[in-house]
């Protein structure tokens, strides 16, 4: 009987990622399913343990993830508002569960094809959802006319996002509508689109010859994602996407043995990029188009989070909190309550996070948690780089492109993370980062699954 049950379990463990991914996707819509999602994840680990004798394959990130999870759970014990911290801790643990479910599931090119399709679908859903849920800002990039956002103007423009939003709203089932009532900051949406874009684009970019017949539908998916990213006017996300595209180009030139050309490109990018951050996030009297902003925001003397001085104040409060709570942090999600209690803002409007990814992790989990998170990130980047080189060696073009996309996605996340922290635990799609991190470990395992002579040019 036990032998039969183990045989059955071995045939069912391949479905654990599908089950965990399904409930994780549902958790993005409603936080009430977190206990169910974590229960499904634990059941999958238990099933794998029963079938194979181990709950998961070992990964290079096991110890760092364990340390990060321990600090997150510890933050529950010191949190002054456990209801807020509990949600973020469960979201983090669910992301880790997705990480391991994906690492165990993605063992073939077919699986990675399904994963790529899933990431495409995620990008499309986020793009369509943005037209309904995003609170648009139309003053950051003046070359995008306000008419695009449905705002009145004398200039005749045809494109109007309110038309798309009204069309979709009329067709949303009543049972689903309550899940879409919360508004989304454009920086949040842009942060995830910037991270997704290179992962979706890179497999095609690196394998045009093998995937030429998919070029048009692939581009048809990338185009609206890129357009929506631009319409968010999130300068940090656009800088992150720019960094990701530069990384992709550098990796492409390296893969084609054009290292010298890559060095020239990098030098050109650095030279052209000098001073651009000051132009985008300059001091208040140096902000381009300040007159336009002042006209639409009369109370501009109270600095908003658009300006670098406001970011500096947000970062200053985060550094002070890390200094005061270096070992434990203040508890996940409690940046604003802690700031209000110890170091109230002087010029900045209410902000619930530090607007810097590294500082936010340090505020939430203290220096030990930050070190664990950074170590996990470095392991992931190292795995993706190793997979990229290995895929080149075995002439696996799809894996080469996929690994390159994951490396570029980390560049996008880190550059965007200089100015924002939305890819951490405070927003619902935060689990997506753990999917990409799991994919980095999985693609490394994939590239070592076959000897070089067994790989083909198209990665099949």
Model description:
It contains 18 helices and no strands. With 460 residues, the protein is an all-alpha fold.
**Sheet having the most strands:** none
Number of strands: 0
Average residue pLDDT: 79
SSE string, helices as H and strands as E = HHHHHHHHHHHHHHHHHH
**What distance lies between the first and last C-alpha atoms, to the nearest angstrom?**
39 Å
Number of H/I helices: 18
| Basic shape | globular
**What fraction, in percent, of the residue positions are helical?**
55-70%
Radius of gyration: 23 Å
Low-confidence runs (pLDDT<50, min 5 residues)?
Answer: 154-160, 175-179, 277-305, 453-460
**Computed structural class:** mainly alpha
Strand residue percentage:
under 5%
Short description:
The chain is an all-alpha fold and 460 residues long. The protein has 18 helices and no strands.
Output the keywords.
single chain, 460 residues, mainly alpha, 18 helices, disordered C terminus
Topology of helices and strands:
Layout: H1 2-12, H2 16-29, H3 34-52, H4 62-78, H5 82-105, H6 109-133, H7 161-170, H8 186-206, H9 215-231, H10 235-255, H11 259-273, H12 276-280, H13 290-296, H14 308-324, H15 335-342, H16 357-393, H17 397-416, H18 431-447
């Amino acid at each position: 009987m036990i032998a039969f049950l183990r045989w059955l379990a071995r045939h069912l463990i391949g479905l654990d990622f599908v089950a965990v991914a399904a409930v994780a996707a549902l958790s993005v819509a409603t936080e009430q399913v977190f206990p169910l999602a974590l229960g499904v994840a634990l059941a999958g680990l238990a099933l794998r343990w029963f079938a194979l004798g181990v709950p998961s394959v070992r990964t290079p990130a096991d110890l760092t993830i364990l340390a990060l999870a321990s600090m997150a759970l510890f933050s529950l014990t010191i949190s002054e508002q456990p209801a807020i911290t509990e949600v973020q801790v469960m979201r983090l643990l669910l992301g880790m569960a997705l990480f391991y479910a994906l690492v165990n599931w993605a063992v073939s090119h077919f699986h990675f094809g399904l994963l790529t399709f899933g990431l495409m679908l995620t990008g499309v859903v986020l793009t369509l959802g943005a037209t309904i849920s995003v609170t648009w800002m139309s003053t950051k990039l003046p070359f995008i006319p306000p008419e695009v956002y449905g705002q009145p103007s004398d200039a005749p423009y045809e494109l109007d996002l309110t038309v798309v939003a009204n069309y979709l709203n009329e067709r949303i089932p009543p049972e689903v509508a309550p899940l879409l009532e919360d508004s989304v900051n454009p920086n949040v949406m842009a942060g995830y689109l910037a991270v997704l874009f290179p992962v979706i684009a890179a497999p095609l970019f690196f394998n045009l010859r093998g995937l030429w017949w998919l070029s048009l539908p692939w581009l048809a998916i990338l185009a609206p994602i890129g357009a929506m990213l631009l319409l968010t006017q999130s300068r940090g996300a656009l800088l992150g996407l720019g960094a990701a595209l530069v990384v992709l180009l550098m990796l492409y030139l390296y893969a084609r043995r054009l290292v010298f050309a890559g060095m020239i490109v990098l030098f050109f990018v650095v030279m052209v990029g000098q001073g651009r951050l000051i132009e985008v996030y300059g001091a208040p009297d140096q902000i381009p188009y300040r007159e336009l902003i002042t006209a639409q925001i009369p109370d501009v003397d109270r600095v908003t989070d658009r300006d670098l001085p406001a970011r500096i104040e947000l970062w200053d409060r985060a550094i002070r909190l890390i200094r005061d709570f270096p070992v434990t942090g203040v508890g996940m999600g409690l940046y604003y309550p802690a700031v209000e209690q110890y170091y109230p803002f002087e010029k900045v409007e209410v902000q619930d996070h530090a607007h810097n990814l590294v500082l936010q992790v340090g505020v939430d989990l203290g220096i030990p948690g930050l070190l664990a998170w950074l170590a996990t990130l470095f392991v992931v980047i190292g795995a993706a780089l190793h997979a990229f080189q290995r895929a080149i060696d075995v002439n696996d073009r799809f894996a080469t492109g996929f690994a390159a996309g994951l490396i570029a996605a980390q560049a996008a996340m880190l550059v965007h993370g200089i100015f924002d922290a939305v890819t951490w635990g405070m927003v619902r799609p935060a689990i997506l980062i753990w999917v990409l991190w799991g994919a980095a470990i999985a693609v490394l395992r994939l590239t070592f699954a076959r000897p070089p002579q067994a790989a083909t040019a198209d990665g099949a």
